[in-house]
């Protein structure tokens, strides 16, 4: 029971860490909270499901591209001009991105033929951990989540693009002075953030059911987890996601599903009392 709950929690946490990393990346670089990441990712996952008859790889690529283009386009043509005029007004951008999320969720509901889907992947068998049977697709999901975190850190340290978004997050004025195209960096990380939202929604659809409201659920949980980890801190988000995933799992086993949200809020308040800036604090300097 305990091992099953722990494994389930780690899997849930791994999936939830993906939109959390998107939130952390976008806030860390742009200074705004984009509430539409998970709903855009869910739209991308529905796109993948719709195109599965044409092949798994083309369908996944279509979902990735759709999510990236929407995220990049919204940042480039709507949010960047507003940042120039209004600055990083958290309340304003929360309202705007919440509105965008509502529109995207509505499009998902009306564009696709089903409101609830399950993304079918080839069955790869079962892995036994002690006496607990674990679907290998679940193992792949958590492995991909950790791999993405490591890839992001690798890109930040070794590529010009990654270094540009780190420079932008740490000192915006200096980044502009050295010739970094800040607006392009904002748009790029927003597109990448929506890809992370897509991957999270995709695996949610593989392991559970995906609905038109899944984006809202992932977004709500993602922001709680991001706050606990330290808003804008990718490593903190991953640690927080794993903690919250285990909390959700054991709360469901021991207390019932209706108490899962209560348990999350208890952990949220307890951690913020001890560490008001989150587990690892924010990585954003300015």
Structural class: mainly alpha
- Which band does the percent of strand residues land in? under 5%
Based on DSSP secondary structure assignment, what is the total number of beta strands? 4
Unreliable stretches covering 5 or more consecutive residues: none
Tell me the radius of gyration.
Answer: 18 Å
What multimeric state do the chains show?
A: single chain
Which of globular, elongated, flat, extended, rod-shaped describes the shape?
Answer: globular
Along the chain, the helix and strand elements come as: HHHHEEEHHHHEHHH
Amount of helix: over 70%
Write down the overall mean pLDDT.
85
Distance between the termini: 46 Å
Record the strand order, biggest sheet: 1-4
Largest beta-sheet details: 2 strands, antiparallel
Written description of the protein model:
With 286 residues, this protein is mostly helical. It has a domain at 15-211. The chain is built from 11 helices and 4 strands, in the order ααααβββααααβααα. It has helices spanning 2-30, 37-51, 56-86, 90-111, 136-158, 160-170, 172-177, 182-207, 214-229, 234-254, 260-274, and strands at 116-117, 126-129, 132-135, 210-211. It has a two-stranded antiparallel sheet. A hairpin with a 2-residue loop joins strand 2 and strand 3 (132-135). The termini are far apart. The mean pLDDT is 85.
